[in-house]
């Protein structure tokens, strides 16, 4: 099992999650983070840290967001590791709870 970063992270990217991960398994793209599924130890520490509730346990991932299981696995192999929190994008709050953000994912 793994935890998964899902759609709400796109363009919000608050990065609180990386501060608590004991195995540093977050990877950073231009406008979202992902979790490496082979490195995550299912500790659940990151889930409550996300201000926009973008992190789910694999078995609680909403049906509409199952694509993010594959996307996390794929992009974690490409993007660089991130271990320290950084400032959120200036317009992060404007993108909270905006639907259909997958179209805005930058690779
Ligand atoms: Fe890291 Fe634990 Fe979150 Fe997995 S569940 S990404 S190990 S903090
Ligand atoms: Fe994204 Fe939430 Fe982490 S917005 S960067 S999953 S704190």
In short:
The chain is built from two helices and four strands; from the N terminus they run βαβββα. The chain is largely without helices or strands and 107 residues long. Strands 1-4 form a two-stranded antiparallel sheet. The protein has a two-stranded antiparallel sheet with strand order 2-3.
How would you characterize this protein structure?
Ferredoxins are iron-sulfur proteins that transfer electrons in a wide variety of metabolic reactions. Pfam families: DUF3470, Fer4. Its cofactor is [3Fe-4S] cluster; [4Fe-4S] cluster. Keywords: 3Fe-4S, 4Fe-4S, Electron transport, Iron, Iron-sulfur, Metal-binding, Repeat, Transport. It comes from Candidatus Litorirhabdus singularis. This protein is low in regular secondary structure and 107 residues long. It has one domain: Alpha-Beta Plaits (2-Layer Sandwich), CATH 3.30.70.20. Helices cover 14% and strands 11% of the residues. The chain is built from 2 helices and 4 strands. The strands form 2 sheets. The chain has a two-stranded antiparallel sheet with strand order 1-4. The chain has a two-stranded antiparallel sheet with strand order 2-3. A hairpin with a 4-residue loop joins strand 2 and strand 3. The mean pLDDT is 98. Bound molecules: iron/sulfur cluster (SF4) and FE3-S4 cluster. The site of FE3-S4 cluster (F3S) has 14 residues, from helix 1.
């Amino acid at each position: 099992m793994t935890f998964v970063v899902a759609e709400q992270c796109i363009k919000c990217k608050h990065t609180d999650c990386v501060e608590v991960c004991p195995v540093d398994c977050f990877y950073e793209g231009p406008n979202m983070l992902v979790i490496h599924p082979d490195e995550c130890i299912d500790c659940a520490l990151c889930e409550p840290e996300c201000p926009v509730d973008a992190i789910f346990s694999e078995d609680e991932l909403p049906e509409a967001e199952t694509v993010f299981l594959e996307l996390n696995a794929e992009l974690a192999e490409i993007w660089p590791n991130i271990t320290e929190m950084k400032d959120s994008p200036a317009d992060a709050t404007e993108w909270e709870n905006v639907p259909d953000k997958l179209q805005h994912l930058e690779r």
